[in-house]
Here is the input.
Amino acid sequence: MLRLTFIAMMIIGFSVNASAKTGISKRISHTRWVGDKKTSVEFDAFPTTLDEWKAMQQQLGSEPQGAVALQVMAFELYRNNRIDGEQALKLNNTSTNYNSTVERLREIMGKDQYYARPYIAWAMLKGATPENGYTVRAPYKIEMKVDPNKKYQQSQLLHGTVIYLLIDSKGWDTNWRGVEVVKPRGCKYFVVSNCPAMYTQCKEAVQ
Here is the structure.
């Protein structure tokens, strides 16, 4: 039933004005898709505190693509504030995926100059490439689509329907980065249940 409802949605766009007290972007918008068309989440600034990230979650977390965008934002928050970043990731992931994600982020954002990719969140933005140093101007956009090769799957373990999405990115040899999201029974928001493609080492930025 969830799949039929989700795919049947008409493509729409909307804008939300966030509270000025949070320092968040004044515009948070996203589109919903029909069939195999792309969807996107667009925002003017990355959250810099846990409270700002939570405000983003209130606006985006009720949609599957919102959970994916919130994961990207949590990666960047983790880069700048490990404590707040870990808390955001805990709120946006199943417990098992939280543990594996944080473990890998510690390595990706570590001090090894040959392995570290602290800009990995930016690699998932539209227009970001290794050649431009993953530098793009606001508004930032994350584009994605439903994985056409994977059907939605009911998970008894996660108590919800798993949705398979693909992020369109130029930061890896293959453009599409798979991520699984689910809305567990009784939960207000969608959360990420599996996302190794998001924290796999991206290409090094050209300086």
